[in-house]
Amino acid sequence: MAERIDWSAVLGEAEEVVYSYSTGVTLRQLFYRLVAVHRLPNTSSAYKGLSSRTAEARRQGLFPDLIDRGREIHRYRHYPSPESALEQLARQYRRDRTEGQDVSLYIGVEKAGLVMQLQDWFGDLGIPILALGGYSSQTYVDEVFEDVSSQDRGAVLLYAGDFDPSGEDIDRDFVARTGCFDKVVRVALSAAQVEHYDLPPAMGKSTDSRASQFIERHGVLVQVELDALPPDVLEGLYRDAINEFWDESAWDAVVEQEAAERTVIAGASR
């Protein structure tokens, strides 16, 4: 018989996990962090239980909010006056902060739920983020190709995805179909990282058409979610990869120019 889950203790530890993040956290990330410390089993029923119990606790004001990128209120932006619109523009105004860089960097990630955290970590740099969300549509492939082609410089993709048959193939498919990246760096997950960070595996899907090749490469069929990686570790892995290509002096020059131009816009609103 499966061990009964002490949900009161789980929610207490889950709250600590949420507050340990410097960014917001998704339910999936929270779940896999709890699985990693053996607080929850890696099962769909445990995931659903965490979802329902955190939702109830949030309704009662007893649990912090989680990220939900799937739903939002859609409304055209509006302003009470032209002056307020200019003030808002001055606050938001940014140049392309990758101007002057030797290469066009792109941050790629398999999970769309991680985009908000990536923006919090690296938004100031102006590096575009590509959330593949699985195998990409041809529309998205074409859009990325056009974006890379417009930069008129070499392009590098820094990518992180799950450690499973599909997770190892999604970026290969994307890179092959876009055909525009000069270099691809797989930031995570690798077999070595799974072992080093003691990430919790689940049974891989034998029905996956890529399962046999995965077993040939790794000797076992498993599924390890990128969400299980501690956020500070994931941030560090991406940052180390970025630093290999990033020209800090070029970024400083763009930010300085941007600040001067923002002052001009702010003056027009007065």
Please report the distance between the alpha carbons of the first and last residues.
Answer: 71 Å
Which regions have little confidence, pLDDT < 50, spanning 5+ residues?
none
CATH class of the largest domain: Alpha Beta
Q: Tell me the overall shape.
A: globular
Determine the mean pLDDT.
Answer: 88
Q: Provide the structure class.
A: alpha/beta
Rg computed from alpha carbons, rounded to a whole number of angstroms: 21 Å
How many beta-strand runs? Answer: 6
> For the largest beta sheet, what order do the strands appear in spatially?
2-1-3-4
Largest beta-sheet characterization: 4 strands, parallel
CATH architecture of the largest domain: 3-Layer(aba) Sandwich
How much of the sequence lies in strands comes to 5-15%
Could you please say which CATH topology of the largest domain applies here? Dna Topoisomerase Vi A Subunit, Chain: A, domain 2
Q: Can you tell me the number of structural domains?
A: 3
Q: Tally the helices.
A: 11
